[in-house]
Amino acid sequence: MDYCLKPLSKTCSQSGEPLQPGDLCYSVLVEKNGHFERLDFSSTGWQGVPEGALGVWRTEVPQPESKPAGYLDLDKLFDLFAQYCEQANDYQKKLRYVLALLLVRKKHLIHEQTTESEGRRIMHLQGARGEGTYEITEEELSQIEVARLEAEINTLGQESVRRAA
To answer: DSSP assignment, residue 40?
Structure first.
């Protein structure tokens, strides 16, 4: 039989004080109204095993998880893409095209269709959150240009590593 228990609380069930990473914590499984409930206690809030406890264990409050190195801030990149849709020089148009391909792949843009006009292919894209419609001319890029543009996008889209709360 599988049980679904909530993860470690952020606060002590006794005192309401925050549980800090690295602190010793006591967890108790109790049954209330036919449902299993997990209660977490700080060392100072722990008053011993409560009556009717089905299980008790001691653990250390884990450190918050951080985003992996190399995490791209796609919202930041989308904002840059939208900025280059309004006004862009020739280099920025190439960067915008590669950004569009990345954002389609990451499902921040939806590719609706590709049309041709004056011998150029134009991608018709829609923002996944209803941000608008974009017409992006396909650019002819060498592999060296693509690699350089991808490196720049990785630099522009890096998010400083943050700790999750």
So the answer is: E
Classify residue 51 as left (phi > 0), alpha (psi -120 to 50) or beta.
beta
Q: How far apart are the first and last CA of the chain?
A: 32
- Residue 102 has a CB neighbour count (10 Å cut-off) of 21
Q: How does pLDDT run across 144-156, given as a tens digit for each residue?
A: 999 999 899 988 8
C-alpha span between 129 and 23 (Å, rounded)? 41
Contacts of 3 (CB under 8 A, 6+ apart): 36
Q: Is the distance from CB of 157 to CB of 67 less than 8 angstroms?
A: no
pTM above 0.70, yes or no: no
Residue 14 has pLDDT above 70, yes or no: yes
Q: Which residues lie across from 158 on neighbouring strands?
A: 72
Structure tokens at 95: 């960067």
Chain mean pLDDT for the chain: 87
